[in-house]
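Supplementary Text 2. Reproducibility record for the structural model of the 225-residue chain.

All settings were left at their defaults, and a single model was retained for analysis rather than an ensemble. We include the record here because the model underlies the residue-level annotations in Supplementary Table 4.
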Amino acid sequence: MKKYFISMLCLMTLASCGGGNYQQVSTAPKLTPAEKLADTYVEAVKVANQKTKQCSDSIQATDEAKLVHKEVLFAGQKDPNAKDLMLSKQRLNSKQSAALQKFMIEQKSCRSIRLNALDKTPYLPSVWLDFYKKSDDLGAQLLNKKITIGEANQQWMTILQETNVNLNEAKRKIYNDVMAMREKEVDLDLKQRGVAAQQAQAQAAREANNRQAWKDSWWNKGPIN
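Retained model, structure tokens:
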């Protein structure tokens, strides 16, 4: 059972987990409420990531997005121009401002897709809402020329790192909540089995007593003529 929830955590973090001894059975076992809830959360995260990626990929292909990631904000921490952008002392020019403004508007269309998919999933929506707020604040500072491109990218790096930590913490909380729910199910099942066993033992004792009483009654009647 523990392996089931470890698999759940692997899926939620989209990480590859080892498990060479795990074999998928052809017939799916009957799931408990905790296991069904775990599957619901895993599916929600999967759908949220897939749909958001589809939305984001279409935006990343635009000229505005390409300009933004080349001259304003790096897309990923491993981008080859990330270091140069973090060291830039320049502030946005009019072309960069226009591209960033349009890019930010288009990106907002993807947010509702993720949040809707995670609507019934605890902890994760609040992390993404915080990320969106910080992203908007950063964009506003850039557009108002309050910070340089380099300062913006340094802040962006911090935002990405903090969000990653917060997402992992949220997923850990979900995992712990579901595990606690499952442990209660196991405890209840064991108690019910214990009660059933005691009842079976008592019934067996009663039947044994009844058989002995019948035997004694029959024997006391004496031989049948």
